What we know:
2 copies of one chain form a homodimer. The first copy, chain A, is an alpha+beta fold. In chain A, strands 1, 2, 3, 4, 5, 6, 7, 8 and 9 form a 9-stranded antiparallel sheet that branches. Chain A is globular. Chain A has 3 helices and 9 strands. The A-B interface holds A 23-26, 28-39, 62, 65-66, 68-72, 75-77, 79, 81 and B 23-26, 28-39, 62, 65-66, 68-72, 75-77, 79, 81.
Amino acid sequence: MATEVRSRVQRRADTVTRLETDVDIWVATAHGDQPHLIPLSFAWDGVRIILATPSGSPTSRNAAASGRIRLALGPPRDVTIFDAATAVVPCAAADADIANAFRRRVDWDPRDEEVEHSFLIATPTTARSWRSVPELTGRTLMREGQWLDA
Amino acid sequence: MATEVRSRVQRRADTVTRLETDVDIWVATAHGDQPHLIPLSFAWDGVRIILATPSGSPTSRNAAASGRIRLALGPPRDVTIFDAATAVVPCAAADADIANAFRRRVDWDPRDEEVEHSFLIATPTTARSWRSVPELTGRTLMREGQWLDA
């Protein structure tokens, strides 16, 4: 497995499987030159990665100010990394389809929290996936929001 | 395990075990509200986390410009997150003890690479560790570079 070099088609399929089944994702944001990083649970609606965190948290504030986050799915030796354009919406004001998709997947409704939470609605613009050094070649799966053909 | 709430002493011991035995760590940097995040192998000399990556990479450039990185050790449900003051030194110019510690641990000498690499020498200033929501209380293990007492 460690030396197998997957095709782009296989890497995309493996990435989609993780988007459909993994529980947590790494979420990196920035304010100026100050990085922030936490793990969060997520939902995937086929196009967007949906996160929820307190509206006053660094992650929400940074994402709201910049509109950009970076996400890493999987462990370090089987990773897909996304850059994503991100909208931040207070949970109470979010579309029902977003809130329902999140509640179904994560089994938690942030609208019930006493502290206001926001959804981060992240649309990937780039995706790169690799397991090992030989897989660094061919790691780009998505560019400018478009999955690349095989 | 999921509902056990570890003492600070235990979390620090678990963190040190990971620092001494894990292979990879998540490395977040930032430049102008733009987050960057990659996994890298690391060494630990008892005080500093040592990374190596091409000098021209976003991670090296961001860390050199800001002097600050954020690191996450372990999987999302058993994590220690560090903020760290970071020096960036071309590998060829680094002290031998840094280069040797890295080569011994990672089994790779970045001084042998054709593309110039730099060491990121990261001294943690804060450390927070948790496995589950009940563990969010008491997660701070280090503040201003000092491990907290039990």
